[in-house]
Amino acid sequence: MTTPSVQRSGPASSRTTAPAGAAVPAPSGPDPRLTSAVMADYRGCFGCGEEAAGGLRLRRTGVDDGAVTAEFDVRAELQGAPGLAHGGVLATAMDEVLGTAAWLLGKRYVTGRLETDYLAPVPVGSTVHLRAWCTGVDGRKAYLEGEGRVGGPDGPVAVRAAALFVEVPEEHFTRERVKHGHSTKERAN
Ligand SMILES: CCCCCCCC(=O)SCCNC(=O)CCNC(=O)[C@H](O)C(C)(C)COP(=O)(O)OP(=O)(O)OC[C@H]1O[C@@H](n2cnc3c(N)ncnc32)[C@H](O)[C@@H]1OP(=O)(O)O
């Protein structure tokens, strides 16, 4: 295990701050999505799916200095206030890149809590450069922080986030479908 050197201060509250002494694994574990039949229809993900009409189409670009990197383009349909990216879109992008960083720890996680700070407006037409890193794992709980920059990977920080992700078994993604009568087949029609 290595400690990512990227440790910038974020909006973390006590609920998204790892307890002292928590292990800080690097994002190098196997990607469980690649081995899971349940994830076969993941292309429909609103955050990163190629098949999600109107989605963010976030592109994962790698791992750099302990942080997962990604980017997405603020297309016109992602506008909120006139000329600017919708705040919910930016929160979604942070959720996606933080979630990716969590999953690359080698386990399946869902977002339990997401906190976001908006520091600068993000114009429609810009590309948002995202980074996310783990600040600690405590049992089933993984703590993540991240940021989104505009004007290039080293541009000003426009959005910051901190989150708590909770590890879940694979059944987490099937039992809710069963409970609510939802199936992949129905969704395809
Ligand atoms: C590559 C993939 C990228 C994916 C990116 C996108 C990620 C997502 O958007 S996931 C979808 C959104 N999230 C969800 O749908 C999750 C819905 N919530 C749930 O399913 C459940 O509430 C769940 C799994 C988070 C926790 O439930 P459960 O498994 O019963 O665990 P539970 O015992 O309540 O909590 C576990 C621990 O987490 C803590 N915890 C859970 N939620 C929170 C919260 N909101 N705030 C603080 N702590 C929390 C609990 O206090 C507990 O701590 P401790 O072990 O110290 O007592």
From TrEMBL:
Coiled-coil positions are none
Enzymatic reactions: tetradecanoyl-CoA + H2O = tetradecanoate + CoA + H(+); (5Z,8Z,11Z,14Z)-eicosatetraenoyl-CoA + H2O = (5Z,8Z,11Z,14Z)-eicosatetraenoate + CoA + H(+); hexadecanoyl-CoA + H2O = hexadecanoate + CoA + H(+); octanoyl-CoA + H2O = octanoate + CoA + H(+)
Composition bias type Polar residues, residue spans: 1-17
The source's superkingdom equals Bacteria
Which portions of the sequence form the region Disordered? Answer: 1-32
Query: Is Cell membrane one of the keywords UniProt gives this record?
Result: yes
Which intervals hold domain Thioesterase?
83-150
What SUPFAM superfamilies does the annotation carry? Thioesterase/thiol ester dehydrase-isomerase
Topology within the bilayer? Peripheral membrane protein
Q: What is its EC number?
A: 3.1.2.2
Q: Name one GO biological process term.
A: fatty acid metabolic process
- UniProt-recorded name of the protein: Acyl-coenzyme A thioesterase THEM4
Organism expressing this protein natively: Actinomadura macrotermitis
Tell me the organism's taxonomic lineage.
Bacteria, Bacillati, Actinomycetota, Actinomycetes, Streptosporangiales
